[in-house]
Amino acid sequence: MNVDIGNALSAVAAPGISRAALERLDEQVADAHERIDAGMEAGEHGYAALNLPNRTDTDEIRVAVDRVTGPDTSAILTVGIGGSALGAATITDALNDADDPEAIYLDNVDPDWLSATLDRLDLETTVLNVVSRSGTTAETLANFLVVRETFEEAGVDWTERTIVTTGDDGPLRELAERHNLPSLAVPDGVPGRFSALSAVGLVAAAVCGHDLDALLRGAAAEAETLTGSLFECPAYAYGATTYALDARGARTNAMMPYAESLETYAEWFAQLWAESLGKDDLGQTPVRALGVTDQHSQLQLYRAGPRDKLVTFVTVQETAARPIPDTDVDDLAYLGDASLGDLLDAEFEATEASLAAAGRPNVRIEIDRVDEFELGGLLYGMEAACVLAGELYGVNTFEQPAVEWAKKATRGLLGGGEFAEAEAVAEKTELRVER
Amino acid sequence: MNVDIGNALSAVAAPGISRAALERLDEQVADAHERIDAGMEAGEHGYAALNLPNRTDTDEIRVAVDRVTGPDTSAILTVGIGGSALGAATITDALNDADDPEAIYLDNVDPDWLSATLDRLDLETTVLNVVSRSGTTAETLANFLVVRETFEEAGVDWTERTIVTTGDDGPLRELAERHNLPSLAVPDGVPGRFSALSAVGLVAAAVCGHDLDALLRGAAAEAETLTGSLFECPAYAYGATTYALDARGARTNAMMPYAESLETYAEWFAQLWAESLGKDDLGQTPVRALGVTDQHSQLQLYRAGPRDKLVTFVTVQETAARPIPDTDVDDLAYLGDASLGDLLDAEFEATEASLAAAGRPNVRIEIDRVDEFELGGLLYGMEAACVLAGELYGVNTFEQPAVEWAKKATRGLLGGGEFAEAEAVAEKTELRVER
């Protein structure tokens, strides 16, 4: 990926960063890079994620996947939530076309939606992919139990079409061993939201026939750029700029890809950013947006609302040619000289310029096309940007302690033990206004 | 809908609002209500939207829809963007089940995605629904021209299956007259983002067989509650609370329904809030979230990040029973006593309480179930809340002037005339960091 931070400069935008401040920040980047480099070298928790391009064994993934797939495979149903779903979904939603097996993600416990999803699947040709590091994630295990029962009730042997990705022990590991299921490891030292380039993110892509090695090569090419200077490394340029803008008031970061196929990528980014940096009362709030659609929804706010936002565009250099037919309506004749891709490009450039003209900071991330290599680079680049930002904020990028309270309360509410958190739920302060 | 603002009180949360401040705010609400009531009475621009439950002619919509649908209708393809798509999409995504015609929205100009969408449709049984007030919206007209050509190339007569919703004049109105297409009016005085309860939002719902009258009845029941006090009107309680919290530092509003079928509703809300209130450097930034999924993505930030957020939950009182099968894994046995609906409910209550325990403000919106009546009430309630908030902010709720710059620049870039905005695009400040 390439990054253009020109529209984040104080010469253009407020909040913005001056070139002098960028030079000073680059010294902090050099220090942070030393820390990151040492963490990678030692395979430390979290930093280890940045080694995945050279560590993930794609042969092992393909061998496991080959045991449960065949030429008639129609769907890959992944049961997982958060980092166990979003990386994989980002990759298949970006790369799948109509001929590939459909990739579906059970990442919610809504009963109506689950039933509707299962009802429409041909279970005989569906591969089941269960992902949970601990093997005890409530949502994932509840969904898995329901899905397994559905297979059994349909007379379809789930043990012949299930692949498991989990930690070294726990209920899912035991299940895999008991039923001799193909299984893969959630890599040590890699938090879920940083695991897209491991088996966690790649099983579904493998089932759909995508080139895992090209994904890793794209990531490795990005890893090559990790140096001590934001001026030489697109990932660090992005991480440092967002940190500096947040400090100057851009508390919100709207991630706005100009490609429908990257809609899920924006969700993946939102998890990466929120869980990694949102702690100690710090952290920029990620907002998921989509070009051009959200020009007709969010642009008014981005351009004329509070000056507390950065908009990050992702733009794809090569798009398909799909000419817009001529029309005899005078007012629309200009469309007939263009393709849909031209219109998309013009809308992107116009929106970017409209924010700059209003002094609103924005950053452009460019990828050549939506393919394995470029996508691998984008995901790796954003992860490295996030790790850098975490160093600059001085937070513990790789933990997410604030979600534990609700997990305990949920378990207590369902009778899974005694938890003070569950008792606190009953003490809710009410001020009800009813129809 | 019912609203519970107990967790937004300063006794619970910071930022929070004291009961005394709420009492004072209620005087402003009374004044604002007078203004709103007078606007509704006079049918003034924007305020007129709140009259739709008593104004929309559902017979007219059904008659128009009957001309293009039949028992074999498999899909309804809506070509529109922003307010011309999101209201309709909210309704069909909430209410459709597997037996209904598929509702698809072409609300982007991505050529790969458009081609993939058209390729998989059975055009012979697809109804086309083109929506644009002006009849000149670039994205909508470009997509329409491509779709029309695709029908023609497939030898399918588009004039027999196209319905148009547009203003009194313009290219789409002329098209409808020339080809004698069934056509409906975008109602006067109703901005797109407030038009869900008019033909703009209801054509697709009618094609999918939903009860338009129940949608309007639900909205009318909510309209009945519009009084001069936030303590008596759920919509005003919500609008006033969000305004007061924004003033106290909750600059972001995360809309988090606990129902997969309401995911699009959160997008609709985000447009309503952003375009209506995002002006004059004011306006709360809407964020789209989804329970329980985003507990594993955004909750860390909401609970431990900056104290600049309100989380708005939408919870559905009745959910389907789908028991979780028993398991012999001790650590998971507690799940076997519950249904997926129980788990969903427990996760919602736990998440709400976890934010309160951390002193983070949140509001609960309750609907009984996801059906026409309740959904109509929810949409109307949020619109009324938004209009009230606009009065309290003192902004022009019903305009969106900041999007014009990019529209002119786009047109200029494509050779549709001379625009200074298009020339500004070329002057971009660059600071590129390349791989």
UniProtKB/TrEMBL annotation, chains A, B:
EC number(s) from the headed UniProt entry: 5.3.1.9
Keyword Lipoprotein tagged: no
Record field: catalytic activity: alpha-D-glucose 6-phosphate = beta-D-fructose 6-phosphate
Pathway(s) per entry: Carbohydrate biosynthesis; gluconeogenesis; Carbohydrate degradation; glycolysis; D-glyceraldehyde 3-phosphate and glycerone phosphate from D-glucose: step 2/4
Pfam family, any one: PGI
Gene Ontology CC annotations of this record: cytosol
SUPFAM superfamilies (alphabetical): SIS domain
A molecular-function term among this protein's GO annotations: monosaccharide binding
Its biological purpose: Catalyzes the reversible isomerization of glucose-6-phosphate to fructose-6-phosphate.
UniProt similarity note: Belongs to the GPI family.
Protein name as annotated: Probable glucose-6-phosphate isomerase
